[in-house]
């Protein structure tokens, strides 16, 4: 059984910036299993999930010299995994393979659909930017990184009730924002399982 030692993020950062591959291995051992579960919940493939997580850690290693002192590796890795999952899903949706009469027909996603998706994502990002910073952080941790209210409360050192309140306010604002523009928040959240 492998014992994983947890270090403060500042210690990890200093070691990574000193090109300490052992610190990288410790981070990988600590976070890779839960990131794989997170990615698998969207991709439904162990191989694709593993690829997404490897991509996250590759980027972590490549960017190790550019991180700020205040980095929270768990948050960074979840955000990176989320983007890697989106990239995989876009790649999967880009081509539709259909068996027809012994031939494989390939139909590229229509350019109008791609533009619609990009516009929807931009609209979502604009709405998110209007949330107060703490509320946005809580919303992202819950809806994009999949953390429970209890984990968010523990990570941010606030009460679960505070997290619930912030989520209620965030959803209320987003719902009103999208309705004011003739869109359904449910549609936005389902369009990419949170963009």
From TrEMBL:
Residues 27-93 form the RNA polymerase sigma-70 region domain. Residues 126-174 form the RNA polymerase sigma factor 70 region 4 type domain. InterPro entries: RNA_pol_sigma-70-like (IPR039425), RNA_pol_sigma-70_dom (IPR014284), RNA_pol_sigma70_bacteroid (IPR014327), RNA_pol_sigma70_r2 (IPR007627), RNA_pol_sigma70_r4_t2 (IPR013249), RNA_pol_sigma_r2 (IPR013325), RNA_pol_sigma_r3/r4-like (IPR013324), WH-like_DNA-bd_sf (IPR036388). Coiled coil: none annotated. Keywords: Sigma factor, Transcription, Transcription regulation. Belongs to the sigma-70 factor family. ECF subfamily. This is RNA polymerase sigma-70 factor. The lineage of its organism: Bacteria, Pseudomonadati, Bacteroidota, Cytophagia, Cytophagales.
